[in-house]
Batch of 2 targets.
Target 1
Amino acid sequence: MPNYSIPSEVFIRAAEQFPTPFHLYDEAGIRKTARAVRQAFSWCPDYMEYYAVKALPNPQILKILKEEGCGLDCSSETELLLAQRCGFSGEQIMFSANAMPPREFDLARSLGAYVNLDDVSDIDLLKEHGGIPETVCIRYNTGGSFSMHGNQIMGSPGDAKYGWTTDQLVPGLQKLKALGVRRFGIHAFLASNMTDPDYYPALSGILMSTAAELEKSAGLPCAFINLSGGIGIPYRPEVPPVDISYVGNGVRREYEKVFGAPQAGKPGIKTELGRYMTGPHGFVVTHAVHEKNTYKHYIGVDACAVQLIRPAMYGAYHEISVVGKENAPKTHLYDITGCLCENNDKFAIDRMLPEIHVGDLLVIHDAGAHAFAMGYQYNGRLRTAEVLRQEDGTFRLIRRAETPEDYFSTLIW
Ligand SMILES: *Cc1c(COP(=O)(O)O)cnc(C)c1O
C-alpha cells in the first residue's frame, strides 16, 4: 500500500465520470501539506514557500496554493505568464534563471519577481534586460559531493550545471553591489527527492554560514536563505514520509546558531518545494485494457509514458494499486505497460500484484508532481485530462484532454 492515498471508491466514481486515463488530484491533501509546511517554518517571520510551477503547472492547483499563502518558483517565460494570470506578482514570484533567453529577465523584472541568478555572467544580462534590482538572489553550487552523516554520498553538486562556484561569490556580489544591489538572497539545490529529514537542516547550515561570511566579505546584508526544492516523498511503501515539523525545527536550530533568534529584519527563509507539496496528492487513473502472456506476463493499460514518464526516464518506482483488490494477496508477477512503441514504456517491471483482469481499474500513485508536466506527444499519444477532487468530494475537470485537432494545430500542411 502507498504511504498516502484516498478511498478507492473515489477512483471508481471518478472513472464513472471521466474516461480513463486521467490525472486525479486531491485538493484536501494539497491544502493539508501546504499548511503543514507553513506551520513548520512559522518560527521565521519572513518565510515563504515558492511552489515550483514546473511540478504541476495547472492554474487551479496554483490558485489553491496561493490561497495557502504560497508564491511560485518560475523558470521560463510561459511559467511567468502562468503565474501572472493566476494573480501572483512581485515578491510572490521567484524567477530561477538557467541558460534561458535573456529577454525572460525583462518579463520577470516587469512583474517585480525576485531574480535568482544562475551564473556571474547573468549580472550583465540582467543589467541589459530589466535592470538590477535592490535585492538579488544568487544560486550557489558548493561543488564536490554533498554528504551527510559523514560518509554517505547524497549528491554531486560539482557535476551539476547550476550555480556559482565558491570563488565567484565575493567578486560577483561586489559587482552587484557596485551596480546598486542592497541585499542578497542565496540559493542552492544540492540533492533531489531527499527523504532524509536532515537534508534541509544540513543544506541550511551550509547556506547560512556562507551567507554570514558573505555579509562580512562583500559588505551586503543577506535578505533570505532560499533552500530550494529537494525534499522527497516516499515513492516506495517501505520509505517513511518526511516529518516536516522536524525539518522546520532543524532549520531553526541552524538559523539560531548563525543569526540568533529569528525576528523581523533578519534574513528570511524561502523554500521552492514541488514534489513534496503535490506529489503524493496526484494519481494516474487507468484501466487494464490488454493482457499478454509471452516470455513475461504483461498487463497493458490505457495510460502510457505520456502521462507519467518517470519510470521510463529514470527507472523510477511508482506504487500501483488495483482498485477493489487493495487487500488481495499479491500472487502474480507482472510488467505493467503502456502503448508506446518504446520498450521502456512500462510503469512497473517484475511487480508482484493481485491478479489483474482486463477491465480492472488501476491507480498509479505519487503522480502529483513531475508527472503530467513532463508529458509529451510521442506516437501521437495525446495528453489526457486533469481532474480535481474538490474538498466537498465533487470532481472538477481542470484541464480537458487533448484532441487530434490540438496536435494538428501547430502543423503547417
Ligand atoms: C525543480 C526545482 C525545484 C523543485 O524541486 P522538487 O524536487 O520538486 O522539490 C525547486 N527549485 C528549482 C530551481 C527547481 O529547478
Note: Residues 52, 54-55, 73, 96, 189, 192, 228-230, 272-276, 369 surround pyridoxal-5'-phosphate (CB under 6 Å).
Target 2
Amino acid sequence: MSKNIDWQNLGFSYIQTDKRFVANYKNGAWDNGSLIEDANIVMNECAGVLQYAQTCFEGLKAYTTKDGHIVTFRPDLNADRLISSCKRLEMPVFPKDKFIDAVTQVVKANADYVPPYGSGATLYLRPYMFGINPVIGVKPADEYQFRLFATPVGPYFKGGAKPITIKVSDFDRAAPHGTGNIKAGANYAMSLHAIVTAHQEGFDENMYLDPATRTKVEETGGANFLFITKDNKVVTPKSNSILPSITRRSLMVVAKDYLGLEVEEREVFFEEVKDFAECGLCGTAAVISPVGKIVDHGKEICLPSGMDDMGPVTKKLYDTLTGIQMGEIDAPDGWIHRIK
Ligand SMILES: *Cc1c(COP(=O)(O)O)cnc(C)c1O
C-alpha cells in the first residue's frame, strides 16, 4: 500500500520514513548492521565528525518502473565512489556488497514510500559515513558509523525543465590536489556561501573554474557540465578535481551507444563556452538541468538553445537516460538493480 502522499507536490526536503540502516565500525571491523526505527543519532560532543568534518556521503534514487518493479540505478558505482571517498578521508571502507545490501534492505523496508511510475517523484537514498568517537587531537577517528536513510522527493522539474542562468563564481570549489573528486561533506560546507551569494544576485547556480589558472571549466556545486558543440559532439570537462558524476558517465555512454554521437572528455576552456550550442548540468537529482545563460562578471553568454526549452540534443539525452531508468528503453547490462 502506497503511503498517502501527494507525490506531485512533494518538494526536495527531508520527510522521515519508517526504517533506516545502521552499521558500526569498532575495533577494526564492521558489525553486520541492521534496520532501525530511530531517526536520531546520539554521539559524544567530541565526535570526529563534529570537530573535523570527517564525513562523506552518496546519493541515489529508488523508483517504480513502467512494469511495476522497484529499482535503483547503478548502485555499484555509488558503492565504489564511497570507497574512494573513505580512502581519501582516512576512513575504513564500507564494503561494496554490504552497501548494495543496505540499499536493498532500506528500499524494501520503505517500499510504501516509493512513488508510483509516472509521478516523476522518487525515493531519494542517502548513504553516509562519519567518525563517531571522541577526537580532539587532529587525527582520524577510530570508530565510524555508516547510515542509509530514505526520503521521498518530488519531481525535480514541475511543469517542464526550464533553462537556468548561472554565474562564473569568484570562489573556488576544490583545490587542484584537494578533495574535489570525492563526495566529502566539507566540499559542500565550503560551497554554501558561494551558492547563497549567487542566489542573492539572482543566479540559479555557480560555474566554478579551475582554481590554479581560472581558465578552465570545472563543475557547479553539485552537478557536472555537459556541453553540445554546434556539430552535435558531446563534450564534458576533464579534471582531477571534478566529482565523477554517475549521471554524467551514464549520459556519455547513452550519447555514444544509443544516440551515435561523438563524445569527448577533455579540458574545456572557458573561452570556448561561447561557441557551444547547448549546456546542461548533470546529477542524480535532475538528471540534466538545461543551462540557458552563463554570466561572467556582467558579460552574458546566451546559449543558442535559449531560455524556453532544453536544447534538442540535451533533450534526447535526457529522454533516453530517463527512459532507461524507468524501464521504457532496454538498459545496458548491470545498470538497473531490481529490488522488488
Ligand atoms: C554528487 C555530485 C555530482 C553528481 O553526481 P551523480 O552521481 O550524478 O549524482 C556532481 N558534482 C558534485 C560536486 C557532487 O557532489
Note: The chain has six helices and 17 strands.
